[in-house]
Amino acid sequence: MKLGELHRREYGRILASLIRAVGDFDLAEDALEDAFEAALVQWPERGPPPNPVAWLIATARNKAIDQLRRRVMAEGKRDEIAALAAPQEDTPVPLDSLRLLFTCCHPALAPEAQVALTLRTIGGLATEEIARAFLVPTPTLAQRIVRAKAKIKAAGIPYEVPQDDVLAERIDSVMAVVYLIFNEGYAASFGAELVRADLCAEAVRLGRMLVELLPAEREPKGLLALMLLHDARRATRTDDEGGIVLLEDQDRSRWEQAKIAEGSALVRQALRGGAPGEYAVQAAIAALHAEAPSAGETDWPQIAALYGVLAGLHPSPVVELNRAVAIAMAEGPESGLALLNTLELPGYHLLPAARADLLRRLGRREEAAAAYRDALALVTNEAERRFLERRLAEVSIG
Amino acid sequence: MQYMLLCYADEKGWGELGEEGQAAIMDDYAAWGQAIVKSGHYRASAKLGPTSASTSLREQNGKRITTDGPFAETREQLGGFHLIECKDLDEALAIAGRIPTLRVGGTVEVRPVERSSET
């Protein structure tokens, strides 16, 4: 395996082990960077070691001991060196990754700091990459990470899997971060590019990790299923010019069947036993879409019912908006429109956009045009703007 | 590590609870206090007098200025504090989460004490 690929795949796991061993984010990170640099020089000369991961962990730990030795004179860190120098396993322990994930997603950190820290430490993404993905200047993002690490130390945020009484709440916090990363990749809220594939892939990887590490929990399975089922359609959501292609117009033969199969199997596991969680219900909706041969042959009554379940778990006008669209498909545009007219979502472009679409289907062109204009006044994503402008032109001319 | 739990609540709302309501909260407070003494987390506690009894000092151009009232006029006022000894933030948050102030709409700020100044 190439060193770059190893870095990409194993960085988070190795770092998690090191942080537990040395008890310090910065020291562990520096030591691991040093170890990768050493590998860059030594492996081409002497050939890669039989177990590259073990080599990196052992090397990084020795680098950390060197670092601590240098600090000993000033601060007296003898105990820590003794603990580190004792013989240890040189394989990453899965529990370490889980501990680190809970630390990075601790609710005592600001949400944007949770996201940045998770991508940096668990994902092993470079600070510049994360900054680019979230369209913030690199120094801003670097500072966000530095501050988060400083707070972990100063506030005593533990490096542990939380106790049972708060575990559910803390798993929610981790899942929220993972889903935020996915959504930022899937429907970038700013700029010209609708999809940022690298963020989606990273979120799926984190979701997989959660499922593996918390096998008894059902909602992580629901979350992973939801992401896989959306991700399966990724390539067909935009055309060659980066314009939006609606679900009903997407080329279903190009949907990734492996992801759909995996997602659908996970949905069934997530729904089994007890009341379903939010992610599981959303994943079930996504599975119905993914498995339908066409938009018309989709089980819309079932989708509308699932949105009803979702509204019960998490009442929100956005969920009602989606339920209205499903009802329109199941029973006709008038029924959907009646529900839409009861909703209020100030500043949210998808409400007038949905109204516009139903009015267009009903042939009420002038009202549709007015609703498209309302939506255009609120939209921020460039690809969505172009789509709405195209529709507005269609109802205005024809 | 030591943590300072700073309890903020709306003084007006507290007054509106009535004697009975206040007594019930104070009973819970006493039970909470006894529990953290027993568990060994307790270091210090105090309930503060009202902000109407507060006096603030500042220095301007080398001159001391004395004014009536608290440091800042806010919707919620600092009403008391607890100093506790904990393993980490999660333990401190669990203890702080049981403070009765939260039930009357208050806020508890959990602030670490700098290690060099721990008693």
In CATH, the topology of chain B is named Alpha-Beta Plaits
Share of residues in helices of chain B = 25-40%
Identify the CATH architecture of chain B.
Answer: 2-Layer Sandwich
- The computed structural class of chain B is alpha+beta
| Derived structural class of chain A | mainly alpha
Give the CA-based shape of chain A: elongated
Q: Share of helix among residues of chain A?
A: over 70%
- What fraction of the residues of chain B are assigned to beta strands by DSSP? 25-35%
What amount of the residues of chain A lies in strands?
A: under 5%
* Strands ordered across the widest β-sheet of chain B: 2-5-1-6
Which residues of chain B form runs of ≥5 with pLDDT under 50?
A: none
Rounded to an integer, what's the Rg of chain B over CA atoms?
A: 16 Å
For the sheet with most strands of chain A, the description reads:
none
Q: What is the distance, rounded to the nearest whole angstrom, between the alpha carbons of the first and last residues of chain A?
A: 58 Å
Report on this structure.
- The complex is a heterodimer of chains A (about 400) and B (about 120).
- With about 400 residues, chain A is mostly helical.
- Chain A has a domain at about 5-90.
- In chain A, about 70% of the residues lie in helices and about 0% in strands.
- In chain A, α3 packs antiparallel against α4 (about 80-85), α5 (about 95-105) packs antiparallel against α6 (about 110-120) and α15 packs antiparallel against α16 (about 335-340).
- Chain A is elongated, with a radius of gyration of 24 Å.
- The relative contact order of chain A is 0.06.
- The mean pLDDT of chain A is about 90.
- With about 120 residues, chain B is of the alpha+beta class.
- Chain B has a single domain, classed as Dimeric alpha+beta barrel (Alpha-Beta Plaits).
- Chain B has three helices and six strands, in the order βααββββαβ.
- Chain B has helices spanning about 10-15, 20-40, 90-95; strands at about 1-10, 40-45, 55-60, 65-70, 75-85, 105-110.
- In chain B, β3 and β4 form a beta hairpin.
- Chain B is flat.
- Chain B starts with a strand and ends in a 7-residue tail after the last strand.
- The interface of A and B includes residues 106, 108, 156, 158 and 162 of A.
